[in-house]
Amino acid sequence: ERRDLLLPEAYEVLQAYGIPVADYRVIYRREDLGKAMSQIEGPIALKVISPKISHKSDVGGVLLNINDLPEAEGAYEKIQRLTDGAPSGILVQKMIAQGKEVILGAKRDPSFGPVLLFGLGGIYVEVFKETSLRVAPINRSEAEEMISELKASSLLKGVRGEKPLDIGRLVENLLRLSQLMMDFPEIMGADVNPVKALEKGAVAVDARIVLVNTR
Length: 215
Prior knowledge:
Distance between the termini: 11 Å
Shape: globular
């Protein structure tokens, strides 16, 4: 179809490679909101799905911290207007409140081939302005180095009484992203941002996968 992956398609690829994704459902009718919400515990986010919208937040296509059905129905109508009623669907996803946000990325460089990126996300990306890079494929010790060489990595290890987060799972996710880029030269870039690093586990909350020669 000569297009980049839609959000649920990107999630399916990540899950196929063993990178966990926050629980989600795809719906196509407002009437299906209630069922989707009953299957997902706690507050939800609604996200637009459209081949014409790659940066969802920029156009108001991501609405967060929705707690009840009337609120969700209003959010659904707002997002539906962005797509002119196109049937790509709307994604209903569990909000992950705890943990810290990190960024996992990959880009196919014309000289080096696939290059992986790791950094802290959310408010920390502006504060620390630091990321680590490695050329894929990487091994486990290189993935560990990508995390530990950041000054901000102390935030993941637990500071001022905070419990340490699951760095082992972040290492695993970096290894799996590396393998994905090696297996599929069709992928120009992958942006898994944010990933929520938890005390146990690390789950992707949003993702974008861009293919080669789709334009």
